[in-house]
Amino acid sequence: MKKILFTIALVVSSLGFSQDILMENGTFMRCAPDKFYDSGGEFGPYGNSENLVTTICPQNDNEFIILDFNLFVTQLGATPDTMHIYDGDDTTANLIGSYSGTNSPGTVSASGANTSGCLTIEFVSNESGQGSGWEADILCATPCQDIIASIDNTTPEANGSGVVGILPGESVDFSGSATFSLDGTGATYSWNFGDGNTAIGSEASHTFNTPGTYTVTLTATDANPQGCSATDTITVFVLGPNIVVDQDTFSPEQLIEDVLINSPCAAVSNIVWSTGISFDPVNEPNGIGYFYGDGQSFPFQEGLILSSGDASKAGGPNDTTVSDGSMTWPGDADLIAELGTESYNATYIQFDFTPLADSISFDFLMASEEYDGAGFECQYSDAFAFLLTDSAGNTTNLAVIPGTTTPIKVTNIHPDNGVCGAINEEYFGSYTPFNGAPIVYDGRTAVMTAQANVIPGEDYTIKLVISDDRDTAFDSGVFIKAGSFNLGGDLGDDITIEAGTAECDGTELTLDTRLELATHVWYKDGVEIEGETSSILTVTEPGIYYADFDFSGVCTGSAEPILVEFKDSPTANPVPNLVICSVTGTEEFDLTQNDSALLGTQEPENFNVSYHLSEQDAIDNVGALTSPYTNIETPQTIWARIADSTQTCFDVSSFTVSATGAPTVNPAPNMELCDDNSNDGFESFDLSAQTASILGGQSAA
Fold this sequence. Notes:
It comes from Winogradskyella epiphytica. This is CUB-like protein. Keywords: Disulfide bond. The protein has 701 residues and is mainly beta. It folds into 5 domains: 21-141, Spermadhesin, CUB domain (Jelly Rolls, Sandwich), CATH 2.60.120; 147-238, Sandwich (Immunoglobulin-like), CATH 2.60.40.10; 255-481, no CATH class; 509-564, no CATH class; 578-661, no CATH class. Strands 19, 21, 22, 24, 27, 28, 29 and 31 form an 8-stranded antiparallel beta sheet that branches. The protein is elongated.
C-alpha cells in the first residue's frame, strides 16, 4: 500500500536498495518481490501530462509476467487519466484493457499465446490534477504443470456408482491426493463440502446434517504464483425417508454404462436417448435421472428412473400431483405400435448390447399418479415398455405381467378399490400416503423382473420407454434397479441373514455366473478352490466367493464378490414318551412337558416348538396341536417340530402318548434260601424270578 512519508533519509534509503519499477519509458526485467508504481513512486502521486510506456518482462525463459494491483486510483473527468495494458512487449500487442478512476486492473497476466511473456503498460494523464496512483506486485510465473487431483478414499465407501450415501447427522471421512507432472512441493489441498463448509488438508471429515445431494470438491493447488490447480468431485447423498433424484452426476450414457449394466465383459454401444429437453431445453422437463434411497423405505437403493414428466420431482414426499410436459413434447412411435396407446411426453433410452450368457434380466417397478385407490385407476394408465429386438428384427416387450404377454399398466395391477375389483393384486406394491414417503407418485407396483432368453454373442437392441397416454397429465415413472441389468458374470446380491436371504445349515446353494463358455477360477475367502472351473459352484459353507473368468482371451473379468451366510439349523433332541394310567384309554397330555427335552441346550427364545399328528404335518408346519391334547388312540405317535423364528430352518422328532389301564399286581410266593456257613442272615435273591407270577396273564411289554 502506498504511504505518505515525510522522512527524507528513509526515502533515499528506499531508492538506494529498491528494484521496484516506477512508471517510465523503457523495458525492465523484474520478478517478485519487486513492485510496480506510478511515476510518483511509493510515496508520491504521478505527474500531469504524462504519456509513458513501460514494458515489464520476466527474468527467465519460459516465464511470464503477472501484475497484481492492490491499489489503483487515477483522476476521472472529461479526459480521465488512463492506463492501457497490452499482452506483449510493445503497444502493438493485443490490448488487455483500459483502466481509470477506481476501476482497478486487478490481476493481469500475460497469455499463453504471448511468447515474450511481457506486459506493456501505457499511461496517459491530463494537464491538471492527479489520483494517488497505483501499486502492483510483479510476479514471474511458469505455465501450469499437469495436475491430477484424486479423492482416493471415503469412509463409508462409495457404492458401485461412485456415490456415498449416509443418513442425516452422519459423517464422511475423505482422503485425497494429487499427481504433479513437474513438482508438487508446497502444494495445498482444500475441500468444499457443498453445504457452505470447507476444510484444508489432504484428509478431512465432515458431518452432513440435512437431507439432500452434496457435491464434495477437492482442489489441489501447486506453488505456482498464478495458482495452478485441479479438482476432483464425489457426490454425497444424505438420505431421509424420501428417495433423492439427481440429474447432474450422470449423463444418460453413464447411467447405462456405470449404473444400470453390471457385467465386466458387457459390450454396450450406440446409446441414444430422448426426453422433454430434447425438444425444448428451456420449457420442457428432463425425464431421465439417477435415484438413490436409504434401502429401507423404497425397494431399490439406487438406479435409473425414466419419467413421462420431470424426473427430478419423483422423490417424496407425496405432497403434490406431478403433471409436467406439454404437447410440444411428443410421444413414441414404437410404444404406439407395441401397445396401441395415444402417446405423449415420451422418454426413452436405447442401446445395443451383446450378451455373453444365454439370458438377460433386470429388476424394476412402475409408479404413477394415476393410482388413486378409487375409480381413476380402473380407467386410466400411462404406458411403458422394454422393447428387445434381435438381429433378425424380432421385437418382444419384456415389461409384462409374469407368465403372460399382458403389458404392465395401472389398470392391469391394483387391489379392489371399491369401484372395480382387484386385478393381479399380487403384483401391486403400495399406495403412497399424502405427504408420505418415499416417492411423489400416488402408488406403485411390486418389484418385478424383466427377463428374456438370448443367444450369447448375438447383437441385440433394447429400448426402455415410457410416456403419458391420452393426455400430458398425471405423470408416471419406471424405476430400474442399479446393477441389475445382468448380461452375464454377476453373482447377484449378498446372501445374508440380515437381508433375510440366508439359507439353513446343510442347504446347498448354487452360484452361477451364467458364462457357460468361459473358463473359471473360483475363490472362497481369497483362496482358490481347486478343480472348480465351470460357471456353476455349489456352496455349503459361509464365506466370500467370487470367480475370475476367461473367454479364450476375448474377454476376461471377475465377478463381484458375494457374501454367503447360513442360518444355524435347530436340532430336535430325543424326547421321552408320555404315559398316563387311565381307565378309559383317553387322557389329556401336556405336550409342553417335552419342550425342554426337545430343545436341550438350545435357547428357548430363539426357537419355536410345535406338535403335530404326522411327520409331514410337522415338516410342512400345518395342523399344530394345542396343549393339553387328548389322545385318540393308545399308544399314539406325536411329532415335535423345532424351528427358528422364520420357520425356514427346522428339525423334527417323535414320541408316543399312552393312556393305559392300571396293571394288576398278582400275588407271588415268598422266597426262601438257606443261609451259608456264615449264618449272618443275608443272601442274594433273584427277584426277576417273581415277574411271571406278578404279571399273571399280563404282557411284559
